[in-house]
Amino acid sequence: MSKHSGQVGLKNLVYAKMHEDGITYDAPKILSPAIQAKITPKTNTATQYADDKSVENATTLGEIDVELQTQDVPLQSQADLLGHTIDSKGVLVHSGNDNAPYVAIGFKSLKGDNTYRFIWLLKGKFEEITEEYKTKSDKVDFATPSLKATFVTRDDDNWKFIADENNGMDNDVMEHWFDAVYQPNIDNTPLSIETNPTDGATGVAATSGVNFVFSKAINSYTVNDSSAFLIKADGTIIDSTIVISTDAKTVTLKPKSTLDAGNYVAIATKAIKTAQGSAPANNVVVNFAV
Question: What sequence ranges are listed for the domain SbsA Ig-like (predicted)?
Fold first, then answer.
């Protein structure tokens, strides 16, 4: 039986930039402490008449208007949400050629029974932010920015995910709600990884790379020189090129120069994840000798 309790709060407002594949995202980032969120879906309804009466109607979903009020909008968030850039001197540069990316936004809302409702909106673009500035007076009067966005359905026809803690929400889903944009019907088992060379290998060719073969396709946006790298045994970084296979299951570290004889360590960290957020249970470390 469903449990009923009204909404009394709003917090944990985050956003995540959508990738070009239209279904995966960057890791979520905190936007700002939230004050208010309003979601207004627009629908179009048509009615068919026959025999002098209405016999059928149909409704289609149009755009979804979203309005947010927050304590602040940090410059980095403005750059992310609106396609602006921050120059080397810390100045946010607005250009007429900037293009806002598609993003998802997520938050949770406290209910009267001290449980939460969790929400992800999946594909939208923000408009330039409405700001108000005024002089200080004898009364404290905080100026808070307003953000407006238009959301649409994603390529898989989904536009919102919503779950209630007090109505059967899975505990693991709740725990990881803000780690990644929720994806339904996924396998969250940890990634397993095979390597070539194997840990402890000797006599490895000086020109060969190191392959990490994952059990599932990984999100290429999580692979970089901080999450996969090659070093000497003394910690010296080896300049390497990172190559991801077309099926996104193999990450190869290719040294840009021939390796000298000696001991090396290749590392793939838990920061490498699938689009659904699955990651290795531990960092994978491969010790080998050339």
Answer: 187-288
CATH of the domain at 275: 2.60.40.1220
Q: Where are the beta strands (DSSP E) in 71-185?
A: 85-86, 92-93, 103-110, 116-126, 146-151, 160-164
Closest CA to 123 of 149, 84, 85, 97: 149
Half-sphere exposure of 94 toward its Cβ, with a 13 Å CA cutoff? 7
Q: Indicate if 118 and 256 belong to the same structural domain.
A: no
Domain hosting 17: range is: 11-175
Give SS3 for 173.
helix
Each residue's pLDDT tens digit in the chain (290 positions)?
678 888 899 999 999 999 877 888 899 999 999 999 999 999 988 999 998 888 898 988 899 999 999 999 999 999 999 999 999 999 999 999 999 999 999 999 999 999 999 999 999 999 999 888 888 887 877 878 999 999 999 877 899 999 999 999 999 999 999 999 998 866 668 899 999 999 999 999 999 899 999 999 998 888 999 999 999 999 999 999 999 999 999 999 999 999 999 999 999 999 898 876 688 999 999 999 99
Alpha carbons 55 and 108: distance in angstroms, whole number: 40
- The verdict on 88 and 215 lying in the same domain is no
pTM: 0.65
Same domain, 209 and 277: yes
Q: Are residues 112 and 251 in the same domain?
A: no
